[in-house]
Amino acid sequence: MVGYDPKAKSESPTPEEAALAGSAGGMVTRALISPFDVIKIRFQLQIERVSSRRREGKYWGIIQASRSIYSEEGLSAFWKGHIPAQLLSMCFGAVQFVSFEFLTKMVHKSTPYDSQTPGAHFVCGGLAACSATVACQPLDTLRTRFAAQGEPKVYSNLRYAVSTMWRTEGPVAFYRGLSPTLVAVFPYAGLQFFFYNVFKQLLAPPPKSRDSGGNMRSLICGSGAGMISKTLTYPFDLFKKRLQVGGFENARSHFGQVRTYTGLIDCAVQIVKEEGIRGCFKGLSPSLLKAALSTGFTFFWYEFFLDVLCNIREKREGQKER
Asked: How far apart are alpha carbons 103 and 115 in whole angstroms?
């Protein structure tokens, strides 16, 4: 079970084990879901309507966008920005799960509340994700810019991107979109941990039965939790992406119309005014696919790697006792 469990037969994971498991889980998950992320970002940044019925912009559907990106930019385009994305996933996974394990343990030891309730997981999950977001926001901005650029490329590599952004836009450029990110990430991550906890309890095997499907259950529970939480908080993710490419308009010009926003409220108002409420949900379809796979695999691989690390530790301790 994710989070501190006082009833668990084995010892709780150490911070190092949680960090390693979170990093490894994030790395594997990122490699698998990167194509969906690239398509989602392209949809989010398109001003024109994303609709197969009214084809106004460059992209109007998942299959069409996939074909267009592949024919124009090649297969590698689906992994654009993969290096900063991998660094982001590994950093975020490590900080988030270490924080979550620490916070749930504090809830058990310092408050009268049960650390394994959905409510405790909502609060601890949201706070853990906020701490990870602040630590990893520069990598998220870099990932978005790499995924958003077409051909010819504005940034040839990660080092050039960092130096160019620092020189032309200043350090604040790396934290563009932080406010909507924090507003969205607390309920989003909180709901992920909340529903994951609920689904795990609903699908828990009977007490006396042999639990042979633990990892698959983690995948299913994580996928359901990811889809629900993503749908409820999606507009903030879109606002974040629009703000992150501020000052990057020239590289976006050949994709269609571009807009400049002064802040979160201005961004939300302009989108609703020009694109309607549906504009706040552009890219939701690939995003739901990504959320189902991403969240499901994140919890699946985290628990998998954590089990491996804990088993290694227990074997070493057993050998020492002998």
From this structure: 9
- Give per-residue pLDDT as tens, 142-190: 877 876 776 677 777 878 888 888 998 888 888 887 887 888 789 999 9
Could you tell me the end-to-end alpha-carbon distance of the chain, in angstroms, rounded to an integer?
A: 29
CA-CA distance, 317 to 22, in Å (whole number)? 23
In contact, 132 and 99? CB cutoff 8 Å: yes
Rg (CA), the chain: 21
**pLDDT score recorded for residue 133:** 92
Could you tell me where the DSSP H helices lie in the chain?
A: 15-45, 62-73, 82-110, 118-148, 158-169, 178-202, 214-244, 249-252, 264-275, 284-321
At 43 the pLDDT is: 82
* 120-139 pLDDT tens trace: 999 999 999 999 999 988 88
Burial 15-37 (b: 16+ CB within 10 A, else e): eebbbbbbbbbbbbbbeebbbbb
Are 294 and 29 spatial neighbours (Cβ–Cβ below 8 Å)?
yes
Confidence of residue 118 (pLDDT cuts 50, 70, 90): very high
Q: Is the peptide bond before 118 cis (omega within 30 degrees of 0)?
A: no
Q: How far is CA 89 from CA 43, 74, 78, in A?
A: 21, 24, 16
pTM exceeding 0.90? no
CA gap 276, 231 in Å, rounded: 17
**CB proximity list for 77: less than 8 A, separation 6 or greater:** 38, 69, 70
